[in-house]
Design goal:
This protein is an alpha/beta fold. The protein is built from seven helices and seven strands. InterPro entries: Thioredoxin-like_sf, TXND_domain-containing.
């Protein structure tokens, strides 16, 4: 198999019919870059997964990088995986069964084994993504040879990776709300403190007189002039 061009390596899917007839009908492992229309595909991650290996005057030839070890990336052309690996780019905004991905802002990758969901990765960690591609490819090749059974995830429920993402996002949202409440409480305390200080400064110009009940009953109320003399005395 000759090295392929980029448009042959990753097929863009933007309709329910194409998803059903092209992606789900594809045998072996399919790696799908899922993106909402408002965000678009992650070009940075795709450029790390698919790289040009030969530049020609007409068009470059691409390969897929599916192995990673430490700081050294070992690349091999798609022909080494044969027909066991396929790449797709899917617009979640145009495909009904991908509706739960429409609010995802992070790069999202689905792994399908002969049309069945086997894994989902959310994030932009290149080594982890490449490791998943390699791992899922080996698993699917064993399934195709009859050496293992495919472990399928429910397509209508969140995968463990998505649950982890949702829990992390919920924790961040909770922390953000708590920090917002703390800022609001601090601002309110500052306003009250300024008001208390203003009242305390104004009280220096006033005298507070306390009349006990028995003084009122016996009529022993001092006159205003007496109060003024008392307050003026050292």
């Amino acid at each position: 198999m000759a090295a392929r061009k980029l448009q042959d390596l990753q097929v863009v899917v933007e309709s329910n019919a194409d998803w059903t007839g092209t992606v789900l009908a594809k045998p072996a492992l399919s790696v799908v870059d899922v993106w909402p229309e408002w965000a678009g595909p992650c070009l940075a991650m795709r450029s790390q997964l698919i790289r040009p290996v030969e530049h020609r005057r007409s068009s470059p030839v691409y390969h897929i990088e599916v192995a990673y070890s430490g700081l050294t990336a070992r690349r091999f052309k798609l022909k080494e995986a044969g027909d066991d690996l396929h790449l797709f780019s899917a617009n979640a905004s145009a495909i009904d069964c991908l509706s739960r991905f429409r609010d995802y802002s992070e790069p999202t990758w689905m792994f399908l084994g002969s049309g069945e969901l086997v894994n989902v990765y959310v994030g932009c960690n290149k080594p982890r993504l490449l490791k998943l591609v390699r791992t899922e490819l080996r698993k699917e090749q064993r399934v195709l040879k009859g050496l293992a059974r495919r472990k399928v995830l429910p397509a209508d429920k969140m995968s463990p990776a998505e649950c982890e993402r949702a829990a992390a996002q919920a924790a961040r949202d909770l922390q953000a709300r708590q920090e917002e409440r703390d800022r609001a409480d601090a601002a309110l305390r500052e306003v009250r403190l300024r008001q208390y200080r203003r009242i305390a400064d104004q009280l220096n110009n006033y005298t507070v007189v306390l009349y006990l009940p028995h003084a009122l009953e016996q009529g022993h109320l001092p006159s205003v002039s007496a109060l003024q003399r008392t307050s003026a005395s050292p």
